[in-house]
């Protein structure tokens, strides 16, 4: 063992503290496993070294980078937009699904199935430009408080994950969001919230058309469903936007299963991570059952597939970026 | 005028030569206009300064970054694949369009219209994995010579444009291809040919599906038409992949009109560039008429819209990256 003189030891001490890339992660095996992986693929002398151009990391958003309870934030946004619109023009409530949504009757909305949700999206996410939609979404995310925590939605991002994203970028990774949520909704805040620019956000999409409006070329949202970036759609979205198989994929539900499978079956060292919502006290506890963020197959197969399961209650010293 | 001592003069001379970012461009007003634009948007003291994150440059591919005569290279590839397949199994020639294509009867193929082309694409671009398709495309592009020049297709990239792409990246731009061509076909060589990685290639697409093949998650090409990244589709593709309005857009045909319009109507200093094929001696001369790369509306409106028209014969001292 090498003995360091006091000043050098102090410097090492300071350096070690300030160098902790994941201060909101507890000192558990989970944190060690993540850091070991990153060090292995970034060390040029390691047999697991991955060139910078191939260091692609893909993150789900809802339930992985920010909360998704009591419902996806984008759904809560859609409901607010619907209520505003219905106040000005009650005739837009042209179906049972929209009436239920406007009354806050979630069971009634869910009973209408996918068609009802698409109706809601069409009313709340179309007939305006992409720029206007993003400005409105951004305003809502920054200024509306979560019903249970009182924290603005845009601050219900997970501090440990924001640290992980930054750590990966510092180590030469390109970080991507690959979400079932709408691409424009996420982009409205992704740069500020996560340091992820618009071109690194892969998501679901309605139809967008280019039109010359009052002499100016404008992208207009027209509703409908162009692409669902969920389940087997996630590897397809990754191929479309990125064209490379990620070396690291992080999700929290069975909607991310295909993405983790795709990423971890590539050649060389790979890592798949599932965020397990175990923290009823600080956040929400849910997994195998429910309507949102169901994690069932993932829990069954994580061990066999060598995926890391993050136990939010045990592995995180802090949950949200925003303070309660 | 400042008098430099001989050694310093020599160094300045060397520096000036090696610092020319566009050595294959003639010293014309066109070159000056491009450099003036780049200097204006990258100078922090300029009123036209654009932050690095917004320095998005979008380039068409066929006819802008590489040649497109006597036909799009991807079409020539599809015909070669069809011939190979038909030799092994003549039954695949199940329509007049495919028979014409196999016989090299381009008029017959064109007579079948869009449906015939889609049939050809379906036979040549489906039923294999994305990885296998890209490996095959790459091999073809690297090893097949152009019928007129004898240069391998992958080297029929324009040297002045390769220099422009590099210059822009050196100045903090993010360079993108936004092409009507197929995204997988272009990605097969885009990094080597242009220094453009797969995630910066926006293109047209058939249907891709994720499937577990022999236990391994695989992306399979299934043919069909999922998205056409041409004309008004180009701004839509830009929004989907990039989510930012480019400050510079470069094309060569009316298929690029909407992209140039969209880019140049943004706030602040913008630049639209059209490559005009004027060089019958060294390349090909064509514009307002024909089946490929028609440039008609663009020529009519370029002056009024302030777009720069590059005269290949006058503005370029060299054409292809590969040597004839």
TrEMBL record, chains A, B:
Keyword Hydrolase: yes
One Pfam family recorded for the sequence: HAD
Keyword Signal included in the entry's annotation: yes
UniProt name for this protein: HAD family hydrolase
Gene source species: Paracoccus onchidii
SUPFAM superfamilies: HAD-like
InterPro entries referenced in this protein's UniProt entry, alphabetically: HAD-like_sf, HAD_sf
Signal peptide: 1-19
Keywords on record: Hydrolase, Signal
GO molecular function per UniProt: hydrolase activity
């Amino acid at each position: 063992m090498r003995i360091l003189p006091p000043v050098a030891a102090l410097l090492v001490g300071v350096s070690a503290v300030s160098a902790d890339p994941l201060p909101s992660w507890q000192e558990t095996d989970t944190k060690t496993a993540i850091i070991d992986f990153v060090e292995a693929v970034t060390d040029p002398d390691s047999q697991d070294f991955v060139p910078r151009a191939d260091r692609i990391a893909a993150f789900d958003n809802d339930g992985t980078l920010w909360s998704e309870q009591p419902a996806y934030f984008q759904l809560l946004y859609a409901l607010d937009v619907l209520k505003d619109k219905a106040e000005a023009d009650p005739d837009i409530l042209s179906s049972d699904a929209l009436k239920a949504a406007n009354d806050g009757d979630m069971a009634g909305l869910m009973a209408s199935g996918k068609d009802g949700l698409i109706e809601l999206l069409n009313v709340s996410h179309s007939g305006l430009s992409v720029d206007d939609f993003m400005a409105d979404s951004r305003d809502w995310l920054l200024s509306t408080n979560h019903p249970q925590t009182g924290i603005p939605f845009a601050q219900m991002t997970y501090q440990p994950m924001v640290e992980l994203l930054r750590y990966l970028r510092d180590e030469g990774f390109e970080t991507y969001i690959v979400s079932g949520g709408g691409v424009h909704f996420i982009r409205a805040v992704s740069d500020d919230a996560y340091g992820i620019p618009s071109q690194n956000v892969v998501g679901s999409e309605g139809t967008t058309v280019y039109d010359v409006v009052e002499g100016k070329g404008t992208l207009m949202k027209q509703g409908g469903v162009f692409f669902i970036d969920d389940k087997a759609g996630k590897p397809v979205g990754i191929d479309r936007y990125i064209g490379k198989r990620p070396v690291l994929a992080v999700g929290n539900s069975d909607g991310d299963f295909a993405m983790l499978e795709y990423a971890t079956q590539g050649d060389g060292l790979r890592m798949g991570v599932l965020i397990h919502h175990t923290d009823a006290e600080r956040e929400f506890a849910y997994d195998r059952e429910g309507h949102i963020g169901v994690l069932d197959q993932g829990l069954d197969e994580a061990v066999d597939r060598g995926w890391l399961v993050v136990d939010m209650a045990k592995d995180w010293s802090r949950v949200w970026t925003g303070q309660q």
